[in-house]
Amino acid sequence: MDISFLTPLAIVAIVIFSVALSLRALKKKASPSNPAFDPESSSYDNVILLVKVPRDSGEEEELKTAPLAAEQMFSSLHGLLRITPEIQEHISFEVFSTGDTFSKGERGIFFYVTTPKSVRDFVESQIYAQYPDAQIDEVEDYLSTIKPGGTMTGAYISTEKEDFFPIKTFRDFEVDPLSAVTGAMSKVNNDGCIWIQYLLCPLADGWQDEGHQYVDIVREGKKKSTFSLSAFAGEVITGVVDLLASIPQAIINPPEQYSSGKPLVKDPLPPRLSAGKELALKSLENKLSKMGFRTVVRVGSCAGTKEKAENQLRSVIATFKQYSISDLNGFTGGIYPPSINEFVDECRERSLPKNHAFILSTEEIASIFHFPSSTVETPAISWTKAKHGEPPLNLPTSDCTFLGKTTFRNQLVKFGIKDCDRARHTYLIGKTGTGKSTLFKNMIYQDIINGKGVGVLDPHGNLIDELLELIPDNRIKDVVIFDPSDADRPVSLNMLECPDQAQKNLMASGLVDVFKKHFGYSWGPRLEYLLNNCILTLLEIPNTTLLGITRLLSDDNYQKYIVYQIKDPMMRDFWTKEFIAMKGNQKLITEAIAPIQNKVGRFLSSSTIRNIVGQAKSSIRIDEVMDQGKIFLVNLSKGRIGEDNANLLGSMIVSRIAFMAMQRVNLPEDQRKDFFLFVDEFQNFASGSFASILSEARKYHLCLHLTHQYTAQLPEEMMAAVSGNVGTIASFSLGAPDATILEPEFAPFFTENDLISLEMYHMYIKLMIDGQTSVPFSAVSLPPPDQNTGNKDKVMALSREVYGHDVAEVEDRIKGWIEKRFDLGQAIRDAHARGEVPREIPKITTVQPTVQEENAIEE
Questions:
Q1: Residues 571/504, Cβ–Cβ less than 8 Å
Q2: What is the topology of this protein in the membrane according to its UniProt annotation (predicted)?
Q3: Alpha carbon 127 to chain centroid distance?
């Protein structure tokens, strides 16, 4: 029996079966139960992230770098696609622009990402993967301050054609398309704001099927140049009906080709497509080859008046026309919601309404949204101020003095520096008000609480006042306050008090360096020679002070008194011969003697200073302060004692501390207690010997912590000494010249621009860790301690009582010394009283001895 006529029946059955499957699949694809098509639910707990990227991403950056990074980011985020029938999460990428008045001075264009908390870490990781220098902060919703009303408007943006038709992508632009969008948003009114939300929900493969069918139809030569699902379904149904109607006729009178076994007529060859049509199909196929997201784009606008709000909205919506391609796809002008209040609620909830959704590929999404790069020159964009750097893995987080918290990718890890590494010294630099003193205050407070020896030189006085509020009960007796402005009970600190005569040359050298720094241009070799001999001479005589320098040069009788007592033959020879010759030379008087009398005399002319350094016995023993681990607070407020006096006095104290530290050479290493010295604005107190102090202090457990504002404050050789000898370097925000100088210290991790752009209390730091300097990383200093103990008055009263003297008594003693007649006879009597063997009387001048001198000689 010939059954060839049944072939049409088989064809019909296959067609019907295929159509049924297709319609079932289409129904399932459009079903609300599919999570990709029902993302309206906003039940997840969202978190809003403010994302900032650095503006300068490198000189070799190309136009397409930022969109390419975004495309890769979106491809990774597609991994959030759920297989289970649970509600599919969606993410919102947003751009917000605000005016000055509306934002209370924080005008700018900001980029946000709103994500469910459950996937926050993954989203952040993918942003960092493509934008490693990004700064991501969790913030409050910027829409929370916007109240719906008559001054608001908004619209949804939609595509013109079916989803599989592509829009123009960043690969076809000569200028970053984001520039047009941000440019329009930058024109926001001062009293308004405008925002764009790009809501994205990942789609499973299958959305491309319609596009592939369209490509097949065009390539097969059908005249239809457009395609829609409804039209395609209609054609299929019509064909099935016609085919079913022809079955009875085919059975009764089968076509000749079936009955005769002749082959069917071959299909015609596919048509030859134009170059433009072929290019369009390639663009379409490119979209179909990528992953897709169900996408909703909406724009909201708020301003002082309805008209302003609508103008802002239209300007931004108009920029989306740049993505249109003839014969393919583009964006419509905007679909206005029936209720602006509901629209704002949807914006706040980040809901994704399916009736406004369309499908975009990862490349298309990266074209309409990506984080900005240097190619986007819109001035109002909020860039990250400075890069954040990754901390070392061996960062000390316990058993250390805490410095701050790391800031890399918002991993705020509290870290510090070990005591053994503090011995290599710490150096801070930064503009005024950037956080240097706050960091010092935290470190000092920890040292005080931990019972360590600490010294603080404060040229302003504020830091000392704040520290006095923090002294705990158990350390009240350890506090030693050096405050020159306390005129009623001056302390005494004799700079010529030398416990070991073998070290007098070292002490003299330090004092000469101090004076040299402050003499300025009047300094010369003869002056230095003369001043050094004056100091060496006085150091040999007990109970002498700095007051003796000017008197030694001007009072012949006092000179006789001193020279008789010195044992150094070279010094005796200098005063009896060389100095006499100098006094006979007017030029030497002008170049050497007069400057010493002028500079030192001016310093000692202040009663405040004179009452401190003019007392023969020191009430503050620096060596005891260091060895007993006391708290030495030096208040050198320039506003109270004058800048020159404060600087000179501070330099002397630093020199004396260094000298006393070096006296520990005779102590075993394990008996040398750490003493942590903090010097604010240290350039004011850094004499020429400071370089040697930096290199030598570590051996004697004197740990220096230095800070100042800019490099020009230091001589070049001093700056080199700091760089070469300091273990830990931290930089707060710098000026441009300093950033250029210090950039090599932090390169290649941070640039000159980063050093300039640091925010307040933020720093870059190279930390000494177990004797090795770490790579630079970013950090923020800790908040200042606020544990006010209320002991300030008690501490000050006790320190004044122990270390101060009644001013009347001090002035009487100094007055008595000034009025006392010192001469050779007095020197002989003093030596006789001490039981010393009479010495040869030096012939200092040709002047005949006085009657008193002759009587003393005879005795």
A1: no
A2: Multi-pass membrane protein
A3: 21
Neighbour tally for 74: CB within 10 Å? 27
| Residue pointed to by tokens 């694809």 | 29
Two structure tokens written together for 600: 């030192």
- Whether 35 contacts 85, CB under 8 Å: yes
Of residues 253, 302, 9, 284, the one with CA closest to residue 143 = 302
**Are 484 and 609 spatial neighbours (Cβ–Cβ below 8 Å)?**
yes
At residue 66, the pLDDT reads 85
Adjacent-strand bridge partners of 153: 301
Count of beta carbons in the 10 Å neighbourhood of residue 248? 9
56-92: pLDDT as tens digits: 655 445 555 789 999 999 999 999 988 764 678 899 9
Identify the pLDDT of residue 101: 64
For residue 408, the 8-state DSSP code is: G
Going by C-beta distance under 8 Å and a sequence separation of 6 or more, which residues neighbour residue 768? 417, 421, 424, 727, 728, 774
32 by DSSP, 3-state: which?
A: coil
Q: What is the pLDDT of residues 384-428, one digit of tens each?
A: 888 999 999 999 999 999 999 999 998 999 999 999 999 999 999
Cα atoms found within 13 Å of the Cα of residue 268, Cβ hemisphere only:
7
**What residue type is assigned to position 500 of the chain?**
D
Amino acid making up residue 661: A
In 3D space, the residue among 739, 745, 785 whose CA is nearest the CA of residue 765 turns out to be 745
Report residue 194 as tokens: 């405008």
pLDDT of 847 above 60: no
Residues of the chain with CATH 3.40.462: 42-205+291-368
Compute the Cα dihedral for 580, 582, 586, 592 and give only its sign.
negative
The proportion of the chain whose per-residue pLDDT surpasses 90, expressed as a percent, equals 61
Q: Return d(Cα 680, Cα 465) in angstroms, integer.
A: 14
370: left (phi > 0), else alpha (psi -120 to 50), else beta? beta
Residues 6+ apart with CB under 8 A from 532: 508, 509, 512
What are 79's two structure tokens?
């991994």
Provide the greatest CA pair distance for the chain. 167
Positive/negative CA dihedral, 31, 34, 38, 43: positive
By three-state DSSP, how is residue 302 classified?
A: strand
Please report how the helices 643-662 and 504-519 are oriented relative to each other, as an axis angle in degrees rounded to 10: 160
How far apart CA 517 and CA 717 sit, in angstroms, is 14
- At 722-761, the pLDDT tens digits run 988 999 999 999 999 999 999 999 999 999 999 999 999 9
What phi and psi values does residue 156 have, to the nearest 5 degrees? -95, 145
Instruction: Look at domain 42-205+291-368 and name its CATH class.
Output: alpha beta
For the entire predicted model, the pTM comes to 0.80
264-273 long-range contacts, CB within 8 A, separation 24+: 268/221, 270/219, 270/220, 270/221, 271/221, 273/218, 273/219
Report the C-alpha gap between 177 and 185 in whole angstroms. Answer: 13
Q: How confident is the model at residue 640 (pLDDT cuts 50, 70, 90)?
A: confident
Q: Give residue 86's pLDDT.
A: 64
Q: Convert 443-474 to b/e letters by CB count within 10 Å (16 or more is b).
A: bbbbbbeeebbbbbbbbbbebbebbbebbeee
In this predicted model, what pLDDT tens digit does every residue of 167-201 receive, in sequence order? 999 999 989 999 999 999 999 988 889 999 999 99
Rounded Cα–Cα distance for residues 270 and 219 (Å): 6
Name residue, tokens 């099927």. Answer: 209
CA angle 454–415–683, rounded 5-degree value: 45
Q: How many CB atoms lie within 10 A of CB 537?
A: 25
Interstrand relation of 631-635 and 426-429 (parallel, antiparallel or unpaired) = unpaired
**What span, in angstroms and rounded, lies between the C-alpha atoms of 626 and 630?**
6
Beta strand residue intervals within 734-845, DSSP E:
762-766, 768-769, 772-773, 777-781
Q: Could you identify the residue written with the tokens 């289409």?
A: 26
The CA radius of gyration of the chain, in Å to the nearest whole number, is: 43
